[in-house]
């Protein structure tokens, strides 16, 4: 099941939507011509702990406009996915996906003016049994 949205709680998702971490040290712009695509939660060991709702964009869909030097990288297990967070406030901003390395997943809560808690029926991906791990 895939969830795509062009509005959240009456707020329109802009084609070029600004986003930031909590402290503002990292600011980025997302290219979202179709709104929020592939909205999901994941139940892998990392995502369960961070609790973020993610959506997807192509690698070209994120432009860091401030604070790239503040981004920290975290990798685990296969070290394929690249998880980024602000080194100042600790907020997860985005990650290069393991299941599709041509896309970034991004933290919907970082979007300016959007409250992800207003999104109903967010599907959960089975990250515990990741499709890339299937033999």
Short summary:
The chain is mainly beta and 135 residues long.
Describe this entry's structure for a reader.
This protein has 135 residues and is mainly beta. It contains one helix and 13 strands. Strands 1, 6, 7, 9, 10, 11, 12 and 13 form an eight-stranded mixed β-sheet that branches. The chain is globular, with a radius of gyration of 14 Å. The mean pLDDT is 92.
The whole-angstrom Rg is 14 Å
Globular, elongated, flat, extended or rod-shaped: what is the shape? globular
- Mean pLDDT, nearest integer? 92
DSSP strand count:
13
- Describe the largest sheet: 8 strands, mixed
Helix content: under 10%
Distance between the termini: 23 Å
Helix vs. strand class? mainly beta
**Count of helical regions:** 1
**Pattern of helices and strands:** EEEEEEHEEEEEEE
Percent strand: 35-45%
Low-confidence stretches: none
Indicate the topology:
Elements: E1 3-5, E2 7-8, E3 11-12, E4 16-20, E5 27-31, E6 36-42, H1 45-50, E7 54-58, E8 62-66, E9 71-74, E10 82-86, E11 92-96, E12 103-107, E13 124-125
